[in-house]
């Protein structure tokens, strides 16, 4: 018998970035809200464009005086402001949503091989030092290790263009900075991305099929295994956080590297950023 964990999930946050309510991205967001709500989840949506969310990380994110105005350091100043309850109201509200959420879905159209600027601004401003990560609490020991996160996005290019011999390059490499460098860095259990390949270039029937597949996946979303990343304790802080020699030696005879980033000069593991269990 298969038991879907998603039925026990209480809260979800969808960070959504699209200008049009009539877009395919909006339809994907609406499908997630509908399916998760039907399963008893409380779903909040941060509609970044509708909110006119400010993507710029500046001293205006801090209420009151900053510690060092002459040599302003955003990370340190916002960490202090977070500890003292002096972050701006919009950041405090987004951090509240994130703290409450069991799962976070980033829904967006891919712009220039990454998230839109307004969503990157949400990441830069909301995931402040101290709240989302510290030098001691990151990666597999990260602050959000009890939470799940995933990317759900549309592309302008076909799947073949994002293949290992495609003109855009391997999608696994494209996703590494987002999934490892942001989500996994903060400790999230990262689910395989939901990729809607070039919906603008296919028929309405094919787009409907895409959305139906997404609805089906949402039924058991949190029953999925997350993507695999190399555990933090595999790296030696005394050697500049390089892979421990014993692990590197053990992996020497393998055909593939450990991950897209920690590849040890070998071929990268195929599909490791788009499929779990790889």
From TrEMBL:
Its EC number is 1.10.5.1. It holds the Pfam family Flavodoxin_2. The keyword Flavoprotein applies. Its main location: cytoplasm. It is found in: Cytoplasm. Keywords: Cytoplasm, FAD, Flavoprotein, Metal-binding, Oxidoreductase, Phosphoprotein, Zinc. GO terms for cellular component: cytosol. Its cofactor is Zn(2+); FAD. GO terms for molecular function: dihydronicotinamide riboside quinone reductase activity; metal ion binding; NAD(P)H dehydrogenase (quinone) activity. Residues 10-218 form the Flavodoxin-like fold domain. Belongs to the NAD(P)H dehydrogenase (quinone) family. The enzyme apparently serves as a quinone reductase in connection with conjugation reactions of hydroquinones involved in detoxification pathways as well as in biosynthetic processes such as the vitamin K-dependent gamma-carboxylation of glutamate residues in prothrombin synthesis. Homodimer. This is Ribosyldihydronicotinamide dehydrogenase [quinone]. It comes from Esox lucius. The lineage of its organism: Eukaryota, Metazoa, Chordata, Craniata, Vertebrata. The gene is NQO1.
């Amino acid at each position: 018998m298969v038991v879907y964990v998603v039925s026990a999930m209480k809260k979800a946050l969808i960070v959504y970035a699209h200008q049009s309510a009539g877009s395919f991205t909006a339809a994907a967001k609406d499908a997630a809200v509908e399916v998760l709500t039907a399963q008893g989840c409380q779903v909040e949506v941060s509609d970044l464009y509708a909110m006119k969310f400010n993507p710029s990380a500046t001293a205006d994110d801090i209420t009151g005086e900053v510690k060092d105005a002459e040599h302003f350091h955003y990370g340190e100043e916002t960490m202090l402001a977070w500890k003292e309850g002096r972050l701006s109201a919009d950041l405090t509200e987004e951090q509240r949503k994130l703290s409450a959420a069991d799962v976070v879905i980033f829904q967006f159209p891919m712009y220039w091989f990454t998230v839109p600027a307004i969503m990157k601004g949400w990441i830069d401003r909301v995931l402040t030092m101290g709240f989302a990560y510290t030098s001691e609490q990151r990666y597999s020991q990260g602050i959000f290790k009890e939470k799940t996160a995933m990317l759900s996005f549309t592309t302008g290019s076909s799947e073949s263009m994002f293949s290992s011999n495609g003109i855009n390059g391997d999608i696994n490499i494209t996703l590494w900075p987002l999934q490892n460098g942001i989500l996994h860095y903060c400790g999230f259990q990262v689910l395989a991305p939901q990729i809607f390949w070039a919906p603008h270039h296919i028929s309405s029937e094919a787009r409907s099929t895409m959305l139906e597949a997404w609805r089906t996946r949402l039924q058991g979303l949190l029953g999925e295994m997350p993507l695999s990343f190399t555990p933090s304790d595999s790296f030696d802080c005394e050697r500049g956080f390089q892979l421990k020699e014993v692990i590197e030696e053990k992996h020497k005879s393998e055909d593939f590297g450990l991950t897209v980033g920690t590849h040890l000069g070998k071929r990268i593991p195929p599909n490791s950023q788009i499929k779990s269990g790889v």
